[in-house]
Amino acid sequence: MADTGTGAHRPELQGPAARGGTGGEGHGGHESAVLDEAHLGDIQGAFGTISELDADSRRSWKRRLLTLLAILGPGIIVMVGDNDAGGVSTYAQAAQNYGLTLLWTLPLLVPVLIVNQEMVVRLGAVTGVGHARLINERFGKFWGAFSVGDLFVLNFLTITTEFIGVNLALAYFGVSAYISVPIAAAALVAMTATGSFRRWERFMFVFIAANFLVIPLAVFSHPRASAFFHGFVVPGVHGGFTSTSMLLVIAIVGTTVAPWQLFFQQSNVVDKRITPRWISYERADTVIGSLVTVFAASLIMAVVAAAFSNHPLFGHYTNAEAVARGLSRYVGHASGAIFSVILLNASLIGAASVTLATSYAFGDVFGMRHSLHRPWREAKFFYTSFTLMVMAAAAIVLVATGRLLGLITTGVQALAGVLLPSATVFLLLLCNDKEVLGPWVNRPWLNVIGFGIVSILLVLSLVLMVTTVFPHLDVRELALGMGAALVLVYAVGGAGYWRALRKRPPEPPMPRSRRDHWRMPPLYRLQRPVWSRGRLVAMYALRGYLVLAVALLVVKAFQLGLHK
Protein backbone atom coordinates (compact mmCIF):
# COMPACT_ATOMS: atom_id res chain seq x y z
CA MET A 1 0.00 0.00 0.00
CA ALA A 2 1.51 3.34 -0.98
CA ASP A 3 2.10 6.24 1.44
CA THR A 4 -0.37 8.98 0.61
CA GLY A 5 -0.98 12.48 1.87
CA THR A 6 -4.17 14.30 2.74
CA GLY A 7 -5.29 17.85 2.25
CA ALA A 8 -5.57 20.32 5.09
CA HIS A 9 -9.38 20.18 5.26
CA ARG A 10 -10.11 16.90 3.53
CA PRO A 11 -12.61 14.64 5.34
CA GLU A 12 -10.09 11.79 5.48
CA LEU A 13 -12.27 9.24 7.23
CA GLN A 14 -16.01 8.82 7.12
CA GLY A 15 -18.60 6.12 7.78
CA PRO A 16 -16.66 3.07 9.01
CA ALA A 17 -14.13 5.31 10.70
CA ALA A 18 -16.78 6.08 13.26
CA ARG A 19 -15.55 3.02 15.12
CA GLY A 20 -13.38 5.51 16.97
CA GLY A 21 -16.47 7.32 18.33
CA THR A 22 -19.12 9.74 17.23
CA GLY A 23 -18.93 13.45 16.88
CA GLY A 24 -21.03 13.80 20.01
CA GLU A 25 -23.76 16.14 21.14
CA GLY A 26 -24.49 18.96 18.74
CA HIS A 27 -22.36 17.63 15.89
CA GLY A 28 -24.83 15.23 14.39
CA GLY A 29 -22.98 12.64 12.24
CA HIS A 30 -20.62 9.84 12.82
CA GLU A 31 -17.49 11.05 11.07
CA SER A 32 -14.15 10.75 12.79
CA ALA A 33 -11.34 13.31 12.98
CA VAL A 34 -8.70 10.56 12.93
CA LEU A 35 -6.21 11.14 10.10
CA ASP A 36 -4.78 7.63 9.79
CA GLU A 37 -6.97 4.50 9.75
CA ALA A 38 -4.25 2.67 11.72
CA HIS A 39 -5.20 4.84 14.71
CA LEU A 40 -8.52 2.99 14.97
CA GLY A 41 -9.03 -0.49 16.39
CA ASP A 42 -8.02 -2.56 19.40
CA ILE A 43 -5.60 -1.21 21.99
CA GLN A 44 -2.49 -3.38 21.63
CA GLY A 45 -0.22 -2.59 24.55
CA ALA A 46 2.97 -4.22 25.73
CA PHE A 47 1.10 -6.06 28.50
CA GLY A 48 -2.29 -6.78 26.99
CA THR A 49 -5.03 -6.08 24.46
CA ILE A 50 -8.36 -4.28 24.86
CA SER A 51 -10.98 -4.72 22.16
CA GLU A 52 -12.43 -1.56 20.65
CA LEU A 53 -15.87 -3.09 21.30
CA ASP A 54 -15.09 -3.76 24.97
CA ALA A 55 -18.10 -2.86 27.16
CA ASP A 56 -16.97 -4.47 30.45
CA SER A 57 -17.76 -2.32 33.50
CA ARG A 58 -14.56 -3.50 35.30
CA ARG A 59 -15.93 -3.67 38.81
CA SER A 60 -13.18 -5.92 40.23
CA TRP A 61 -9.70 -4.63 41.12
CA LYS A 62 -8.13 -7.46 39.12
CA ARG A 63 -9.90 -6.35 35.93
CA ARG A 64 -8.92 -2.75 36.57
CA LEU A 65 -5.29 -3.70 37.12
CA LEU A 66 -5.19 -5.75 33.92
CA THR A 67 -6.73 -2.83 32.03
CA LEU A 68 -4.15 -0.43 33.46
CA LEU A 69 -1.36 -2.77 32.42
CA ALA A 70 -2.69 -2.89 28.86
CA ILE A 71 -2.97 0.91 28.66
CA LEU A 72 0.28 1.62 30.51
CA GLY A 73 2.78 3.14 28.12
CA PRO A 74 2.41 6.68 26.74
CA GLY A 75 2.57 8.32 30.17
CA ILE A 76 5.47 6.43 31.68
CA ILE A 77 7.43 6.38 28.39
CA VAL A 78 7.19 10.15 27.93
CA MET A 79 8.20 10.78 31.54
CA VAL A 80 11.13 8.35 31.70
CA GLY A 81 12.14 9.47 28.20
CA ASP A 82 12.51 12.96 29.61
CA ASN A 83 15.21 11.66 31.97
CA ASP A 84 17.35 11.54 28.86
CA ALA A 85 21.06 12.24 28.31
CA GLY A 86 20.53 15.97 28.80
CA GLY A 87 18.50 15.26 31.92
CA VAL A 88 21.11 12.98 33.49
CA SER A 89 23.84 15.50 32.61
CA THR A 90 21.86 18.42 34.02
CA TYR A 91 21.03 16.63 37.29
CA ALA A 92 24.67 15.57 37.64
CA GLN A 93 25.88 19.11 36.94
CA ALA A 94 23.50 20.56 39.52
CA ALA A 95 24.68 18.05 42.13
CA GLN A 96 28.40 18.35 41.39
CA ASN A 97 28.37 22.15 41.37
CA TYR A 98 25.72 22.88 44.00
CA GLY A 99 25.37 19.72 46.07
CA LEU A 100 21.76 19.03 47.04
CA THR A 101 20.78 22.69 47.26
CA LEU A 102 18.87 22.49 43.94
CA LEU A 103 17.08 19.25 44.77
CA TRP A 104 13.98 21.19 45.89
CA THR A 105 13.21 22.06 42.25
CA LEU A 106 12.24 18.46 41.45
CA PRO A 107 9.22 17.89 43.74
CA LEU A 108 7.84 21.25 42.59
CA LEU A 109 7.83 19.94 39.02
CA VAL A 110 5.61 16.92 39.79
CA PRO A 111 2.31 18.90 39.62
CA VAL A 112 3.57 20.73 36.52
CA LEU A 113 4.27 17.40 34.82
CA ILE A 114 0.90 15.94 35.77
CA VAL A 115 -1.16 19.02 34.85
CA ASN A 116 0.48 19.59 31.47
CA GLN A 117 0.47 15.96 30.42
CA GLU A 118 -3.08 15.29 31.66
CA MET A 119 -4.30 17.97 29.27
CA VAL A 120 -2.64 16.31 26.27
CA VAL A 121 -4.07 12.96 27.38
CA ARG A 122 -7.58 14.41 27.01
CA LEU A 123 -6.70 16.08 23.72
CA GLY A 124 -5.36 12.86 22.25
CA ALA A 125 -8.13 10.56 23.45
CA VAL A 126 -11.00 12.92 22.56
CA THR A 127 -9.76 14.31 19.25
CA GLY A 128 -7.84 11.39 17.74
CA VAL A 129 -5.48 14.02 16.29
CA GLY A 130 -1.92 15.03 17.17
CA HIS A 131 -0.94 18.27 18.86
CA ALA A 132 0.74 19.80 15.82
CA ARG A 133 -2.31 19.22 13.59
CA LEU A 134 -4.67 20.77 16.13
CA ILE A 135 -2.56 23.93 16.44
CA ASN A 136 -2.22 24.21 12.68
CA GLU A 137 -5.97 23.78 12.03
CA ARG A 138 -7.36 25.78 14.95
CA PHE A 139 -5.00 28.78 14.88
CA GLY A 140 -3.75 28.92 11.30
CA LYS A 141 -0.54 28.14 9.47
CA PHE A 142 1.41 31.07 10.95
CA TRP A 143 0.97 29.89 14.53
CA GLY A 144 1.33 26.29 13.41
CA ALA A 145 4.70 27.10 11.85
CA PHE A 146 5.66 29.01 15.00
CA SER A 147 4.84 26.05 17.21
CA VAL A 148 6.14 23.18 15.05
CA GLY A 149 9.17 25.20 13.90
CA ASP A 150 10.24 25.76 17.50
CA LEU A 151 9.60 22.09 18.18
CA PHE A 152 11.76 20.93 15.28
CA VAL A 153 14.75 23.13 16.21
CA LEU A 154 14.57 22.22 19.89
CA ASN A 155 13.99 18.53 19.21
CA PHE A 156 16.83 18.26 16.73
CA LEU A 157 19.23 19.84 19.23
CA THR A 158 17.89 17.50 21.89
CA ILE A 159 18.42 14.45 19.66
CA THR A 160 22.01 15.63 19.18
CA THR A 161 22.51 15.70 22.96
CA GLU A 162 21.25 12.11 23.10
CA PHE A 163 24.05 10.99 20.79
CA ILE A 164 26.51 13.05 22.82
CA GLY A 165 25.29 10.99 25.75
CA VAL A 166 25.82 7.72 23.84
CA ASN A 167 29.37 8.82 23.00
CA LEU A 168 30.21 9.81 26.59
CA ALA A 169 28.60 6.72 28.13
CA LEU A 170 30.50 4.22 25.98
CA ALA A 171 33.72 6.27 26.00
CA TYR A 172 33.91 5.34 29.70
CA PHE A 173 34.31 1.71 28.54
CA GLY A 174 36.84 2.69 25.86
CA VAL A 175 34.47 2.43 22.87
CA SER A 176 35.15 4.90 20.04
CA ALA A 177 32.41 7.33 18.98
CA TYR A 178 32.85 6.04 15.41
CA ILE A 179 31.57 2.68 16.65
CA SER A 180 29.09 3.60 19.39
CA VAL A 181 27.20 6.39 17.65
CA PRO A 182 26.46 4.64 14.30
CA ILE A 183 25.44 1.41 16.08
CA ALA A 184 23.10 3.34 18.39
CA ALA A 185 21.58 5.17 15.41
CA ALA A 186 20.98 1.92 13.53
CA ALA A 187 19.47 0.29 16.63
CA LEU A 188 17.03 3.18 17.11
CA VAL A 189 15.77 2.92 13.53
CA ALA A 190 15.50 -0.88 13.77
CA MET A 191 13.49 -0.71 17.03
CA THR A 192 11.09 1.89 15.67
CA ALA A 193 10.43 0.64 12.16
CA THR A 194 9.20 -2.85 13.08
CA GLY A 195 5.63 -2.18 11.95
CA SER A 196 4.32 -3.27 15.36
CA PHE A 197 3.23 -0.79 18.01
CA ARG A 198 3.30 -3.53 20.67
CA ARG A 199 6.86 -4.57 19.78
CA TRP A 200 8.06 -0.95 19.91
CA GLU A 201 6.39 -0.42 23.29
CA ARG A 202 8.06 -3.53 24.70
CA PHE A 203 11.45 -2.15 23.64
CA MET A 204 10.61 1.03 25.55
CA PHE A 205 9.74 -0.92 28.69
CA VAL A 206 13.18 -2.54 28.61
CA PHE A 207 14.65 0.97 28.82
CA ILE A 208 12.20 1.89 31.59
CA ALA A 209 13.29 -1.15 33.62
CA ALA A 210 16.96 -0.17 33.17
CA ASN A 211 16.08 3.27 34.55
CA PHE A 212 15.84 1.64 38.01
CA LEU A 213 19.61 1.00 38.04
CA VAL A 214 19.66 4.24 40.02
CA ILE A 215 18.68 2.16 43.08
CA PRO A 216 21.87 0.03 43.28
CA LEU A 217 23.84 3.15 42.35
CA ALA A 218 22.37 4.90 45.40
CA VAL A 219 23.10 1.85 47.58
CA PHE A 220 26.79 1.98 46.60
CA SER A 221 27.16 5.72 47.26
CA HIS A 222 24.88 5.73 50.37
CA PRO A 223 23.99 9.47 50.41
CA ARG A 224 23.02 10.89 53.80
CA ALA A 225 19.25 10.75 54.28
CA SER A 226 19.16 13.94 56.40
CA ALA A 227 20.95 15.99 53.71
CA PHE A 228 18.71 14.50 51.03
CA PHE A 229 15.45 15.39 52.77
CA HIS A 230 16.73 18.85 53.69
CA GLY A 231 17.58 19.56 50.03
CA PHE A 232 14.24 18.11 48.98
CA VAL A 233 12.14 20.53 51.03
CA VAL A 234 14.29 23.61 51.72
CA PRO A 235 14.83 26.01 48.75
CA GLY A 236 18.27 27.52 48.35
CA VAL A 237 21.41 27.53 46.20
CA HIS A 238 24.96 26.84 47.31
CA GLY A 239 26.79 30.15 47.01
CA GLY A 240 23.57 32.13 46.48
CA PHE A 241 21.41 32.83 43.46
CA THR A 242 23.35 34.05 40.43
CA SER A 243 22.73 34.26 36.70
CA THR A 244 24.59 30.97 36.26
CA SER A 245 22.55 29.15 38.91
CA MET A 246 19.34 30.55 37.42
CA LEU A 247 20.37 29.11 34.05
CA LEU A 248 20.73 25.73 35.74
CA VAL A 249 17.34 26.05 37.47
CA ILE A 250 15.71 26.75 34.10
CA ALA A 251 17.65 23.83 32.60
CA ILE A 252 16.28 21.51 35.31
CA VAL A 253 12.78 22.74 34.49
CA GLY A 254 13.37 22.36 30.76
CA THR A 255 14.83 18.87 30.99
CA THR A 256 12.08 17.64 33.34
CA VAL A 257 9.09 19.35 31.65
CA ALA A 258 9.94 19.73 27.96
CA PRO A 259 7.73 20.93 25.06
CA TRP A 260 8.34 17.75 23.04
CA GLN A 261 6.50 15.79 25.75
CA LEU A 262 3.21 17.46 24.80
CA PHE A 263 3.54 16.45 21.15
CA PHE A 264 4.79 12.95 21.90
CA GLN A 265 2.21 11.85 24.45
CA GLN A 266 -0.79 13.20 22.55
CA SER A 267 0.28 11.45 19.35
CA ASN A 268 1.24 8.29 21.19
CA VAL A 269 -2.17 8.19 22.89
CA VAL A 270 -3.76 8.50 19.45
CA ASP A 271 -1.45 5.84 17.99
CA LYS A 272 -2.24 3.46 20.85
CA ARG A 273 -5.95 3.95 20.06
CA ILE A 274 -6.90 5.19 23.51
CA THR A 275 -10.39 6.73 23.51
CA PRO A 276 -12.25 8.85 26.13
CA ARG A 277 -13.49 5.76 27.93
CA TRP A 278 -9.91 4.94 29.00
CA ILE A 279 -8.80 8.45 30.01
CA SER A 280 -8.80 7.65 33.75
CA TYR A 281 -6.35 4.79 33.15
CA GLU A 282 -4.09 6.95 31.00
CA ARG A 283 -4.16 9.60 33.73
CA ALA A 284 -2.91 6.94 36.17
CA ASP A 285 -0.19 6.02 33.66
CA THR A 286 0.86 9.69 33.57
CA VAL A 287 0.94 10.06 37.37
CA ILE A 288 3.01 6.87 37.73
CA GLY A 289 5.43 8.14 35.08
CA SER A 290 5.86 11.54 36.76
CA LEU A 291 6.66 9.94 40.11
CA VAL A 292 9.13 7.51 38.52
CA THR A 293 10.98 10.26 36.65
CA VAL A 294 11.32 12.56 39.69
CA PHE A 295 12.37 9.59 41.84
CA ALA A 296 15.16 8.68 39.40
CA ALA A 297 16.27 12.30 38.95
CA SER A 298 16.41 12.82 42.72
CA LEU A 299 18.57 9.73 43.23
CA ILE A 300 20.99 10.83 40.49
CA MET A 301 21.45 14.18 42.20
CA ALA A 302 21.84 12.52 45.61
CA VAL A 303 24.46 10.06 44.32
CA VAL A 304 26.59 12.68 42.57
CA ALA A 305 26.35 15.16 45.46
CA ALA A 306 27.41 12.52 47.98
CA ALA A 307 30.32 11.38 45.80
CA PHE A 308 31.81 14.81 45.01
CA SER A 309 31.18 16.70 48.26
CA ASN A 310 34.42 17.53 50.08
CA HIS A 311 36.52 16.55 47.08
CA PRO A 312 38.53 18.79 44.70
CA LEU A 313 36.16 18.19 41.76
CA PHE A 314 33.18 19.66 43.63
CA GLY A 315 32.02 22.76 41.73
CA HIS A 316 33.97 21.82 38.60
CA TYR A 317 31.55 19.92 36.37
CA THR A 318 32.77 19.23 32.83
CA ASN A 319 30.64 16.45 31.33
CA ALA A 320 28.83 13.22 32.16
CA GLU A 321 31.81 11.00 31.34
CA ALA A 322 33.89 12.90 33.89
CA VAL A 323 31.11 12.34 36.43
CA ALA A 324 31.29 8.58 35.78
CA ARG A 325 35.06 8.64 36.24
CA GLY A 326 34.68 10.68 39.43
CA LEU A 327 32.19 8.14 40.80
CA SER A 328 34.64 5.36 39.92
CA ARG A 329 37.40 7.19 41.78
CA TYR A 330 35.49 8.27 44.88
CA VAL A 331 32.89 5.48 45.25
CA GLY A 332 34.06 2.49 43.24
CA HIS A 333 34.42 1.20 39.70
CA ALA A 334 30.97 -0.41 39.81
CA SER A 335 29.38 2.98 40.47
CA GLY A 336 31.11 4.56 37.49
CA ALA A 337 30.06 1.68 35.26
CA ILE A 338 26.43 1.76 36.45
CA PHE A 339 26.24 5.54 35.93
CA SER A 340 27.54 5.09 32.38
CA VAL A 341 24.93 2.41 31.66
CA ILE A 342 22.22 4.72 33.07
CA LEU A 343 23.47 7.50 30.80
CA LEU A 344 23.46 5.17 27.77
CA ASN A 345 19.96 3.94 28.58
CA ALA A 346 18.73 7.52 29.05
CA SER A 347 20.28 8.54 25.73
CA LEU A 348 18.56 5.74 23.81
CA ILE A 349 15.05 6.15 25.25
CA GLY A 350 15.38 9.92 24.96
CA ALA A 351 16.44 9.74 21.31
CA ALA A 352 13.66 7.26 20.52
CA SER A 353 10.98 9.45 22.15
CA VAL A 354 12.12 12.88 20.96
CA THR A 355 12.68 11.77 17.36
CA LEU A 356 9.33 10.01 17.29
CA ALA A 357 7.62 13.14 18.65
CA THR A 358 9.02 15.07 15.68
CA SER A 359 8.04 12.42 13.12
CA TYR A 360 4.53 12.31 14.58
CA ALA A 361 4.33 16.12 14.25
CA PHE A 362 5.51 16.04 10.63
CA GLY A 363 2.94 13.38 9.81
CA ASP A 364 0.25 15.51 11.43
CA VAL A 365 1.18 18.72 9.64
CA PHE A 366 1.71 17.19 6.19
CA GLY A 367 -1.22 14.76 6.42
CA MET A 368 0.94 11.67 5.88
CA ARG A 369 0.46 8.28 7.50
CA HIS A 370 2.20 8.28 10.85
CA SER A 371 1.57 5.16 12.90
CA LEU A 372 3.84 2.58 14.50
CA HIS A 373 1.20 0.00 13.53
CA ARG A 374 2.24 0.43 9.89
CA PRO A 375 5.24 -1.22 8.23
CA TRP A 376 7.78 0.91 6.38
CA ARG A 377 6.20 0.38 2.95
CA GLU A 378 2.91 1.93 4.19
CA ALA A 379 4.43 4.89 6.04
CA LYS A 380 7.58 5.79 4.12
CA PHE A 381 7.47 9.50 4.98
CA PHE A 382 7.03 8.79 8.69
CA TYR A 383 9.93 6.36 9.00
CA THR A 384 12.18 8.22 6.57
CA SER A 385 11.86 11.47 8.54
CA PHE A 386 12.73 9.53 11.71
CA THR A 387 15.78 7.97 10.05
CA LEU A 388 17.07 11.22 8.57
CA MET A 389 16.86 13.06 11.91
CA VAL A 390 18.71 10.26 13.67
CA MET A 391 21.41 10.15 11.00
CA ALA A 392 21.89 13.93 10.93
CA ALA A 393 22.16 14.19 14.73
CA ALA A 394 24.62 11.29 14.84
CA ALA A 395 26.73 12.89 12.09
CA ILE A 396 26.99 16.18 14.00
CA VAL A 397 28.32 14.36 17.06
CA LEU A 398 30.94 12.62 14.93
CA VAL A 399 32.25 15.77 13.22
CA ALA A 400 31.73 18.60 15.75
CA THR A 401 34.35 19.75 18.22
CA GLY A 402 34.09 19.06 21.93
CA ARG A 403 33.47 22.71 22.76
CA LEU A 404 30.55 23.00 20.32
CA LEU A 405 29.01 19.82 21.75
CA GLY A 406 29.45 21.25 25.22
CA LEU A 407 27.60 24.42 24.20
CA ILE A 408 24.73 22.35 22.78
CA THR A 409 24.46 20.29 25.96
CA THR A 410 24.63 23.38 28.16
CA GLY A 411 22.02 25.38 26.30
CA VAL A 412 19.43 22.95 24.96
CA GLN A 413 17.82 22.08 28.31
CA ALA A 414 17.51 25.76 29.24
CA LEU A 415 16.09 26.45 25.77
CA ALA A 416 13.35 23.92 26.50
CA GLY A 417 12.53 25.76 29.72
CA VAL A 418 12.36 29.11 27.91
CA LEU A 419 10.06 27.76 25.16
CA LEU A 420 7.78 25.83 27.53
CA PRO A 421 5.50 28.84 28.33
CA SER A 422 4.60 29.21 24.66
CA ALA A 423 3.78 25.51 24.34
CA THR A 424 1.67 25.65 27.50
CA VAL A 425 -0.28 28.67 26.23
CA PHE A 426 -1.33 26.81 23.08
CA LEU A 427 -2.17 23.80 25.23
CA LEU A 428 -4.46 25.91 27.43
CA LEU A 429 -6.16 27.48 24.41
CA LEU A 430 -6.90 24.05 22.92
CA CYS A 431 -8.15 22.66 26.23
CA ASN A 432 -10.65 25.53 26.53
CA ASP A 433 -11.92 25.09 22.95
CA LYS A 434 -15.40 23.54 23.17
CA GLU A 435 -15.40 22.75 19.47
CA VAL A 436 -12.40 20.51 20.13
CA LEU A 437 -13.07 18.99 23.55
CA GLY A 438 -16.80 19.49 24.12
CA PRO A 439 -17.59 18.18 27.63
CA TRP A 440 -13.90 17.48 28.24
CA VAL A 441 -12.76 21.13 28.31
CA ASN A 442 -10.67 22.38 31.24
CA ARG A 443 -12.32 23.12 34.53
CA PRO A 444 -11.64 26.61 35.96
CA TRP A 445 -9.18 25.41 38.62
CA LEU A 446 -7.08 23.73 35.94
CA ASN A 447 -6.89 26.99 33.97
CA VAL A 448 -5.71 28.77 37.10
CA ILE A 449 -2.92 26.23 37.60
CA GLY A 450 -1.99 26.41 33.92
CA PHE A 451 -1.76 30.21 34.05
CA GLY A 452 0.39 29.91 37.16
CA ILE A 453 2.79 27.55 35.37
CA VAL A 454 3.14 29.91 32.39
CA SER A 455 3.67 33.01 34.53
CA ILE A 456 6.28 31.42 36.82
CA LEU A 457 8.25 30.10 33.84
CA LEU A 458 8.15 33.54 32.24
CA VAL A 459 9.45 35.11 35.45
CA LEU A 460 12.34 32.61 35.58
CA SER A 461 13.31 33.31 31.97
CA LEU A 462 12.97 37.06 32.56
CA VAL A 463 15.34 36.84 35.54
CA LEU A 464 17.83 35.01 33.34
CA MET A 465 17.49 37.64 30.60
CA VAL A 466 17.96 40.61 32.92
CA THR A 467 20.93 39.10 34.75
CA THR A 468 22.60 38.17 31.46
CA VAL A 469 22.45 41.82 30.34
CA PHE A 470 23.17 43.19 33.83
CA PRO A 471 25.32 40.50 35.50
CA HIS A 472 25.97 42.53 38.68
CA LEU A 473 22.33 42.72 39.71
CA ASP A 474 21.31 40.89 42.87
CA VAL A 475 19.39 37.88 41.53
CA ARG A 476 17.65 37.20 44.85
CA GLU A 477 16.25 40.74 45.11
CA LEU A 478 15.26 40.75 41.44
CA ALA A 479 13.44 37.43 41.80
CA LEU A 480 11.65 38.60 44.96
CA GLY A 481 10.56 41.83 43.24
CA MET A 482 9.22 39.97 40.22
CA GLY A 483 7.53 37.46 42.51
CA ALA A 484 5.74 40.27 44.34
CA ALA A 485 4.59 41.73 41.02
CA LEU A 486 3.37 38.28 40.00
CA VAL A 487 1.30 37.97 43.19
CA LEU A 488 -0.34 41.30 42.37
CA VAL A 489 -1.12 40.07 38.84
CA TYR A 490 -2.63 36.90 40.33
CA ALA A 491 -4.84 38.93 42.66
CA VAL A 492 -6.16 41.26 39.95
CA GLY A 493 -6.47 38.56 37.31
CA GLY A 494 -8.03 36.10 39.74
CA ALA A 495 -10.71 38.59 40.74
CA GLY A 496 -11.57 39.28 37.10
CA TYR A 497 -11.66 35.56 36.25
CA TRP A 498 -13.93 34.84 39.22
CA ARG A 499 -16.37 37.56 38.14
CA ALA A 500 -16.40 36.20 34.58
CA LEU A 501 -17.14 32.70 35.86
CA ARG A 502 -20.06 33.97 37.96
CA LYS A 503 -21.62 35.61 34.93
CA ARG A 504 -21.29 32.44 32.84
CA PRO A 505 -24.57 30.49 32.72
CA PRO A 506 -24.26 26.97 34.15
CA GLU A 507 -24.28 24.09 31.70
CA PRO A 508 -26.09 20.84 32.46
CA PRO A 509 -23.61 17.98 32.90
CA MET A 510 -23.48 15.34 30.20
CA PRO A 511 -24.22 11.77 31.38
CA ARG A 512 -21.08 9.71 31.92
CA SER A 513 -22.10 7.10 29.35
CA ARG A 514 -22.38 9.74 26.60
CA ARG A 515 -19.31 11.67 27.76
CA ASP A 516 -17.13 8.57 27.53
CA HIS A 517 -18.01 8.25 23.84
CA TRP A 518 -17.89 11.94 22.86
CA ARG A 519 -15.23 12.55 20.21
CA MET A 520 -14.28 15.54 18.12
CA PRO A 521 -15.74 15.55 14.60
CA PRO A 522 -13.47 16.07 11.57
CA LEU A 523 -11.48 19.29 11.76
CA TYR A 524 -12.90 20.60 8.47
CA ARG A 525 -16.34 20.81 10.13
CA LEU A 526 -15.17 23.01 13.02
CA GLN A 527 -15.28 26.79 13.04
CA ARG A 528 -11.93 28.33 13.85
CA PRO A 529 -11.85 30.35 17.08
CA VAL A 530 -11.76 34.12 16.62
CA TRP A 531 -9.16 35.86 18.76
CA SER A 532 -9.86 39.25 20.27
CA ARG A 533 -7.43 42.06 19.51
CA GLY A 534 -6.12 41.88 23.08
CA ARG A 535 -5.38 38.16 22.84
CA LEU A 536 -3.70 38.63 19.45
CA VAL A 537 -1.49 41.42 20.84
CA ALA A 538 -0.62 39.24 23.84
CA MET A 539 0.36 36.33 21.58
CA TYR A 540 2.58 38.51 19.41
CA ALA A 541 4.14 40.01 22.54
CA LEU A 542 4.85 36.50 23.86
CA ARG A 543 6.42 35.56 20.54
CA GLY A 544 8.64 38.66 20.53
CA TYR A 545 9.65 38.09 24.13
CA LEU A 546 10.61 34.47 23.45
CA VAL A 547 12.75 35.46 20.46
CA LEU A 548 14.65 37.91 22.70
CA ALA A 549 14.88 35.38 25.54
CA VAL A 550 16.32 32.71 23.23
CA ALA A 551 18.88 35.17 21.84
CA LEU A 552 20.07 36.10 25.33
CA LEU A 553 20.10 32.44 26.34
CA VAL A 554 22.46 31.70 23.45
CA VAL A 555 24.70 34.57 24.65
CA LYS A 556 24.73 33.16 28.17
CA ALA A 557 25.50 29.63 26.97
CA PHE A 558 28.46 30.92 24.92
CA GLN A 559 29.71 32.91 27.91
CA LEU A 560 29.72 29.76 30.03
CA GLY A 561 31.27 27.71 27.23
CA LEU A 562 34.12 30.17 26.74
CA HIS A 563 34.94 30.14 30.45
CA LYS A 564 35.27 26.36 30.64
Name the features.
2 strands; Amino acid/polyamine transporter I; single chain; mainly alpha; 564 residues; 1% strand; two-stranded antiparallel ribbon
Overview of the structural elements:
With 564 residues, this protein is mainly α. The chain has a domain at 33-51 and 61-240 and 258-401 and 429-446: Amino acid/polyamine transporter I (Up-down Bundle). It is 69% helix and 1% strand. The chain is built from 22 helices and two strands. The protein has helices at residues 61-71, 74-82, 85-98, 105-127, 131-139, 141-171, 177-192, 197-210, 214-221, 225-233, 243-256, 259-271, 279-308, 320-330, 333-366, 380-399, 402-431, 434-437, 444-469, 475-503, 512-515, 533-562, and strands spanning 43-45, 48-50. The chain has a two-stranded antiparallel ribbon. Residues 1-29 have low confidence and may be disordered.
Please sum up the structure shown.
The protein has 564 residues and is mainly α. 69% of the residues lie in helices and 1% in strands. It contains 22 helices and 2 strands.
